[in-house]
Amino acid sequence: MKIESLQNTNVKEWCKLKNKKDRDQSGLFLIEGEHLIEEAQKQNLIKEIISCEDTLDADFYVTKDIMRKISSQVSISSRVAICYKKKEEEIQNKILILDNIQDPGNFGTMIRSAIAFGFTDIVASFDTVDLYNEKVVRASEGMLFHVNVVRKELLTFLEEIQNDYQILLTDVKKGKNIKEITLQDKIAIVIGNEGQGVREEIKNMASQFIKIPIQKTCESLNAGVAASILMYEVAVRK
Amino acid sequence: MKIESLQNTNVKEWCKLKNKKDRDQSGLFLIEGEHLIEEAQKQNLIKEIISCEDTLDADFYVTKDIMRKISSQVSISSRVAICYKKKEEEIQNKILILDNIQDPGNFGTMIRSAIAFGFTDIVASFDTVDLYNEKVVRASEGMLFHVNVVRKELLTFLEEIQNDYQILLTDVKKGKNIKEITLQDKIAIVIGNEGQGVREEIKNMASQFIKIPIQKTCESLNAGVAASILMYEVAVRK
Fold first, then answer.
1. Is B145 helix (H, G, I), strand (E, B) or coil?
2. What share of chain A in percent tops pLDDT 70?
3. How many CB pairs under 8 A join A and B?
4. Residues B38, B40, B41, B42: is their CA dihedral positive or negative?
């Protein structure tokens, strides 16, 4: 189908997906570019493909002006796709838990690293940035199609898993070097907000406080980097 | 001194510092917020402080409107400062080498991790994003005041150091697990562009190809994360 009017109903619906509210209501989100489309196809999550070039395979063909309106990027892609959100799945042995992560780039980077290091499940607090925010999608480099992200009230969730999982939480003062920790099979790593860290009531749920040894000049690592190094350590120790 | 006009010459000069060209010409750059000001003060790099609140110490007091014009952030800070760029220093034993890094957030994150893991020198190609770009400054969390960033033509620089330094370069295919590498005292880690990786002619300069073992589903790590894990490995192995 060919669309040439910026006022077309489909175009309006696609543009709405820039808002979290509309993504939540429709259960849909938008991705841009070939790499993401390829990853979404692997998981059968594509509803429809929109192209601004006749030569490419698509469900809808639109003008460059329409594509510019749909896209959130400075240089528009030739194809974008509308995807179904992933269904939540059962949680496995290695969990990354996110307490109020606000930076979309950090969230996306953590998803990418999680898949790289075999953490297929991420449990995020309700106040963590939306998984389907276009910057999260982009920074995840398509890995969001492979990860199981579940939203939970973290305190309740940690109470449920605390007998089964070793809950690791970073603390610069009382934390033990991650290298010196005996790791169990079932592990949950908790990463806190970029500015405030992990909330106090959640800190109380830790099985073990850990730290990544760093030079004194530097107060802390970027949240995405800290999460990645901890998951890397767990992956290489197994 | 109190400034109330948006047309004031100082205000115009400060706003110009948003452009790389003007930062290069003046040798100055602008930082926002108390944390960065504190870090800049430690290094004696502050030329003047500008405040939009009478109660705070400053060289210039300006209106909120002027501050909004100077600032690059959505929620303006109470104080910003004009800083002198750091002088280039002599290079030590551990170098992070950046070949055409384009994302300011990645560059800032790498600076933060470099200081965390004792890499006090960064050698960046001329096409790497500007160190004094406000997003780089912000993402570095003040660590840019502690790092020695030097711009070089990388090929020439690598030729100069190749007899003295172990030049480590990531390669997913032929790289050896970083854990299995014998590390020398003088180490240079080369990180390439986010999309294209390291240029071929620079690849030829490697003493050793390395890799961070990751799951097959994930093609690669974020450049900032990869750099951080490699520097972490070097730091903990010493």
1. helix
2. 100
3. 83
4. positive
